[in-house]
Specification:
- The complex is a heterodimer of chains A (117) and B (107).
- Chain A is built from no helices and 11 strands.
- Chain A starts with a strand and ends with a strand.
- In chain B, 0% of the residues lie in helices and 62% in strands.
- Chain B contains no helices and 11 strands.
- In chain B, a hairpin with a 4-residue loop joins strand 7 and strand 8.
- The mean pLDDT of chain B is 91.
- Classes of the chains: A mainly beta (117), B mainly beta (107).
- Chains A and B meet through strand 4, strand 5, strand 9 and strand 10 of A and strand 4, strand 5, strand 9 and strand 10 of B.
């Protein structure tokens, strides 16, 4: 079956541009996560959705970052006025559940590599 | 602050060697995940465990909840095992990742 897909796979943006990164989770997966992975580092949590509700956005680094999942399936991570420090791989993952401390396996997308010049 | 530490950071092994990667975490968890990341970014979940031991093929993962420590073992390592191995602690809805162990297996 189809896994998690992300688009675009690569994005080059000029400093100051806005970008939108898309994530298509596995159908039926309730939970969706966004992570930022800098070169040579492990992923860092950005935000979490349970269905359409954004339950945790504590990892978003600034108010230039905005995520939505309006119908509880596809999610978009938007970065406004991009800066060079935003250059990273942005990973999306989905899982069947995740609420209330119950752990579920995460399925990762291939990531979007964002380069801000 | 949740901290996940892995060791070693880099590991080079000869084909056939037994490999151990260690992970320590700082807070109570719902589960501990071991992930594999190949060059190009794709991440695959290897194990999710909250107690004891799990085995899948040549991979074995163990966890000691009292000591907040987990290990990933690879038996009879092969060059195709070369990748970055990341452990992540899952606490509620939050995931905290280690920086990864880069493994290179030489033929």
């Amino acid at each position: 079956g189809a896994g998690v897909s992300q688009s675009p796979r690569y994005k080059v943006a000029k400093r100051g541009q806005d970008v939108a990164l898309r994530c298509d989770p596995i159908s039926g997966h309730v939970s969706l996560f966004w992570y930022q992975q800098a070169l040579g580092q492990g992923p860092e949590f950005l935000t979490y959705f349970q269905n359409e509700a954004q339950l945790d956005k504590s990892g978003l680094p600034s108010d230039r970052f905005f995520a939505e999942r309006p119908e509880g399936s596809v999610s978009t991570l938007k970065i406004q006025r991009t800066q060079q420090e935003d250059s990273a791989v942005y990973l999306c993952a989905s899982s069947l559940g995740g609420a209330g401390g119950i752990a579920y396996e995460q399925y990762f997308g291939p990531g979007t590599r964002l380069t801000v010049t | 602050k949740n901290e996940v530490e892995q060791s070693p950071q880099n590991l080079t092994a000869q084909e056939g060697e037994f490999i151990t990667i260690n992970c320590s975490y700082s807070v109570g968890i719902s589960a501990l995940h071991w992930l594999q990341q190949h060059p190009g970014g794709g991440i695959v979940s290897l194990f999710m465990l909250s107690s004891g031991k799990k085995k899948h093929g040549r991979l074995i993962a163990t966890i000691n909840i009292q000591e907040k420590h987990s290990s990933l073992h690879i038996t009879a390592s092969h060059p195709r095992d070369s990748a970055v191995y990341i452990c992540a602690e899952n606490t509620g809805n939050q995931f905290y990742f280690g920086t990864g162990t880069s493994l290179t297996v030489i033929p």
